[in-house]
């Protein structure tokens, strides 16, 4: 006889509805992306095939993603590398007490609470001022390439890179602060007692111990940059990233090709996360065996 109280079933039903609300849209997009050539944007489905994935891969459809995909991938990889590098260096620096450390920490993570569109607008305004300064210098000094060819410093790997780092770095910093707060310095002291230099201590002792957490920081850096829209909206200049391209196409797309793109990018993100966490698990096991 089932002795569980009625509240158990109420809470279970509420949780099931929450999961449906959370993952229902993604599942719907996944299912609708496998429609036949006559498929539409809503249920019921019209056939089952990979037609829209083939069309997406061949290009020339309503969703032109080649350039936007390459830009987003390159930008996300660069953001990932910089996020990991700066986060590790900051984590090492904050292990030592220095004047203004608390203020610097608050400034570093303040962008988490600032509305993303405000950050984007602020960076865009800053770069427009830089554009004006560069053009003024070109006019005053008679620099021909500035006068004839320079348009704007706004771009994915200048203003766009800075905008994405304002989003990814705080997460990386918080992770590394938590890691180093629990880090036992006795291992490093033992290495130095054995004659290791600071670089050797970091490379052979500190880095292997924090490597699994660096993978987590890398995943944060890549995925947050990969799908960032609000902070990208004002700072990319004439070049769209993949999320911006998707947002621009949602008002005109009339077939499931955009669903196929959503399924492909979501699947790629999930695959990346699985690979990175598998690597982290392997590194953890290797460290434990060592």
Automatic annotation (TrEMBL):
Domain annotation ABC transmembrane type-1: ranges: 69-283
Keywords recorded for this protein, A-Z: Cell membrane, Membrane, Transmembrane, Transmembrane helix, Transport
Topology class, membrane: Multi-pass membrane protein
TM stretches of this protein: 75-94, 103-125, 164-183, 204-226, 258-283
Alphabetical list of SUPFAM superfamilies matching this protein: MetI-like (SSF161098)
Keyword presence, Transmembrane: yes
Keyword match Cell membrane: yes
GO cellular component: plasma membrane
PANTHER family the UniProt entry points to: PUTRESCINE TRANSPORT SYSTEM PERMEASE PROTEIN POTI
Record-stated family: Belongs to the binding-protein-dependent transport system permease family. CysTW subfamily.
Name this polypeptide is given: ABC transporter permease
């Amino acid at each position: 006889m089932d002795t569980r109280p009625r509240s158990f079933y109420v809470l279970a039903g509420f949780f099931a509805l929450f999961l449906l609300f959370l993952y229902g849209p993604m599942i719907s997009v996944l299912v609708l992306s496998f429609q036949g050539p006559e498929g539409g944007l809503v249920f019921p489905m019209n056939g089952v095939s990979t037609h829209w994935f083939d069309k997406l891969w061949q290009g020339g459809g309503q969703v032109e993603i080649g350039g936007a995909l390459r830009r987003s991938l390159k930008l996300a990889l660069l953001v990932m590398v910089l996020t990991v590098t700066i986060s590790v260096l900051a984590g090492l620096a904050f292990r030592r007490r220095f004047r203004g450390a608390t203020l610097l920490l608050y400034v570093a993570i303040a962008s988490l609470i600032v509305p993303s569109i405000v950050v984007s607008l602020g960076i865009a305004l800053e770069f427009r001022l830089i554009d004006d300064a560069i053009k003024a210098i070109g006019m005053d000094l008679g620099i021909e390439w500035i006068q004839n060819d320079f348009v704007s410093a706004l771009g994915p790997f200048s203003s766009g890179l800075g905008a994405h780092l304002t989003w990814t770095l705080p997460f990386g910093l918080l992770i590394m602060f938590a890691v180093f707060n629990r880090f036992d310095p006795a291992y490093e002291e033992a290495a130095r007692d054995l004659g290791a230099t600071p670089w050797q201590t970091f490379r052979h002792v500190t880095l292997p111990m924090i490597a699994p957490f660096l993978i987590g920081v890398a995943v944060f850096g890549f995925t947050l940059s990969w799908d960032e829209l609000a902070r990208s909206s004002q700072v990319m200049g004439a070049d769209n990233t993949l999320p911006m391209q998707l947002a621009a196409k949602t008002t005109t797309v009339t077939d499931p090709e955009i669903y196929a793109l959503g399924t492909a990018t979501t699947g790629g993100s999930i695959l990346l996360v699985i690979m990175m966490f598998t690597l982290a698990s392997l590194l953890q096991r290797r460290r434990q065996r060592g």
